[in-house]
Amino acid sequence: MTLVLASKSRSRRAMLKNAGVEIECLPANVDEAAIKDSLIAEGTTPRNLVDALSEAKARRVSNRVPGAMVLGADSLVVTEDGQYLDKPETPGDAKMHLHMLSGTTHSLLSGAVIYEDGAPVWRHIDVAKMTMRHLSDGFVDDYVSAHWDNIRHCVGCYEIEGPGAQLFARILGSQFTIMGLPLLHLLDYLRIRKVLPS
Q1: What is the mean pLDDT of residues 33-54?
Q2: Least CB-packed of 16, 141, 150, 166 within 10 Å?
């Protein structure tokens, strides 16, 4: 059975490929901001929000590729005081986000939903707790200047598999979750479905 990733995310694509999972990529092109704004206005929980965003992507692409398993995924950063952070639009946004997270512990949630023939068949949400060390103004300026092209695609403004590791004092959770996918849980499901050997 074909597995389709409803995303153009480089990190998710690389994770699946490196784990030996063959995929096709078909971006969902959903209006994530509209979904997020609507659900936040309704007072939804972070878990329900990341689940809804993942599901919207899987559902959109599933309607276009009957017979395929379609994986939708999303990640969300929630600060200690309950604010949601989006991907930065400018280097100035990235610096503001990093100063906001500096010296605090935030939650990073990654959700995944699989649709088949227009219906959900599997979902999982994983959470990592990220304690960022105190960052100096100079470090933030240099970090954003050097890595903007990569971190502009990352909620939280870090690539944990690269220099972003320098931002943290402590991490509780899976590195795969931090990179954007509850990968081990997904691999378990793919083995159950005989997409991967058990």
Answers
A1: 94
A2: 166
* Nearest alpha carbon to residue 124 among 138, 108, 113: 113
CA atoms within 13 A on the CB side of 141: 3
- pTM more than 0.70: yes
Residues sharing a CB contact under 8 Å with residue 157, sequence separation 6 or more, in sequence order = 88, 94, 97, 98, 144, 151, 164
pLDDT tens track for 161-175: 889 999 999 999 999
Q: What is the mean pLDDT of residues 102-123?
A: 97
Annotation marks residue 141 as catalytic: no
Query: How far apart are alpha carbons 65 and 77 in whole angstroms?
Result: 31
Instruction: Compute the average pLDDT of residues 45-59.
Output: 96
Q: Which among 146, 142, 139, 157 has a CA at the least distance from the CA of 85?
A: 157
**Contact by Cβ (8 Å): 108, 127:** yes
Token pair for 158: 């870090």
Q: Identify whether the C-beta of residue 105 lies closer than 8 Å to the C-beta of residue 129.
A: yes
Catalytic residue selected from 31, 37, 74, 141: 74
Q: Which residues contact 53 (CB under 8 A, 6 or more apart)?
A: 30, 32, 35, 36, 72, 74, 76, 111
List, as one string, the DSSP characters of 113-140: EEEETTEEEEEEEEEEEEEEPPPPHHHH
**Residue position matching structure tokens 């849980």:** 185
Quick one: pLDDT at residue 9? 86
